[in-house]
Write a structure and sequence with these properties.
The chain has one domain: Phosphate transport system protein phou homolog 2, domain 2 (Methane Monooxygenase Hydroxylase, Chain G, domain 1). It is built from 7 helices and no strands. It has helices at 3-42, 45-76, 80-112, 115-118, 125-147, 153-180, 185-217. Homodimer. It holds the Pfam family PhoU. It is found in: Cytoplasm.
Length: 227
């Protein structure tokens, strides 16, 4: 093997290791999201603590992958599709880290919930639907990376619009409950925080779908996909 071929092989291995690290971080964040919502719904404080522990791992993953990208850019001076991939990966791990932050907020809410006040407030189906939809959006966006196939990415954009409507429905219902029964105010405010966190997670999943299109197709759709 020539020196050039040897260097090229190492470079391709570095890119593949990076891709694997991003997908592994994505799987961790997806699990974190599902556990956070379950911990809140089931008032499972042990599970909520686990979500917060995973958050520390996610933060470390973010720093590690950022460092890997910087090193490859500095040493290999990539161009065209490789450079696009590296820039897209940097954006993606930033969105994953923020999803982890939102999942942690939900877990902290589970830890601080006052059960004596929760009994006055009916469980909102729209929040459960929002959580399922946000998790599905994240799964689809990550699948696009894994399969290098963006066919489902635009469905993520449509799902985000649906998620926004579910959030508005949750807000309307919670305000109604608070106006009709002041005993629901404390628990309703908790639910509002959770609903908002889920809505933001959908926005980050949408960003990841945009990144997948940028990496795979070379098209930057951040400000155009809804036009």
């Amino acid at each position: 093997m020539s020196n050039h071929q040897h260097t090229s092989t190492i470079y391709q291995t570095e890119l593949e290791d990076l891709r694997t690290a991003v997908l592994k971080m994505g799987g961790k964040v997806e699990s974190q999201l599902r556990q956070a919502v379950l911990a809140f719904n089931e008032n499972d404080k042990q599970m909520a603590e686990q979500v917060l522990e995973v958050e520390r791992e996610v933060n470390r993953d973010h720093l590690t992958i950022d460092s890997m990208c910087s090193e490859i850019i500095a040493l290999r001076q990539p161009a065209a599709s490789d450079l696009r991939m590296l820039l897209g990966m940097v954006r993606t791990v930033s969105d994953l880290e923020r999803i982890g932050d939102e999942a942690s907020k939900i877990a902290k809410m589970a830890l601080n919930t006052d059960l004596s006040k929760r009994g006055f407030l009916p469980r909102l189906q729209t929040i459960a639907q929002s959580a399922d939809l946000a998790a599905a959006m994240l799964r689809s966006a990550l699948d696009a990376f894994a399969r290098e196939d963006t066919s489902d990415s635009r469905q993520v954009f449509a799902s985000d619009l649906e998620l926004d409507e579910l959030y508005k429905a949750s807000v309307r219902q919670l305000i109604t409950f608070m106006m009709e029964d002041p005993r629901t105010i404390s628990a309703a405010l908790d639910d509002l925080w959770v609903a908002k966190a889920i809505e933001r997670i959908g926005d980050h999943a949408e960003n990841i779908a945009e990144n997948a299109i940028y990496i795979i197709e070379g098209e930057d759709v951040r400000y155009t996909h809804n036009s």
